[in-house]
Amino acid sequence: MKRDPRNHANAAMKYRLARMGLDSGKLQAMIQLQNNKCAICGVSLAEIETKNVHVDHDHLTGKARGVLCHYCNAVLGFAKDSKDVLSKAITYLQSPPFNLLEETQDVGEAQTL
Fold this sequence. Notes:
It is a single chain. The chain contains 5 helices and 2 strands. It is mainly alpha-helical and 113 residues long. The chain has 2 domains: 80 residues, His-Me finger endonuclease fold; 32 residues. A two-stranded antiparallel sheet has the order 1-2. The chain starts with a helix and ends with a helix. The model has no long low-confidence stretch (mean pLDDT 87).
């Protein structure tokens, strides 16, 4: 008798949720609390593929933090959940080094005129 792969996927999902302290009811409550949107960027979770919706969790405690889209989950992952790295990324976006270079060159050009 062949096993239905959907049963395996459902069991695997239940196991992963349980490890984060969630069940399907708590997951749905979390999604409702977030107004069915990514907790970071606000994209509608209904508008993206299910495989691109992620339950974010604290890697130290294993507890769930929120539901994110793939991109926001990846940002946290690449930053290794470091608030310091994310803060530096914001500073970088607000004042990229290239802008400073352009400002310095503009001042230099103005002085030579």
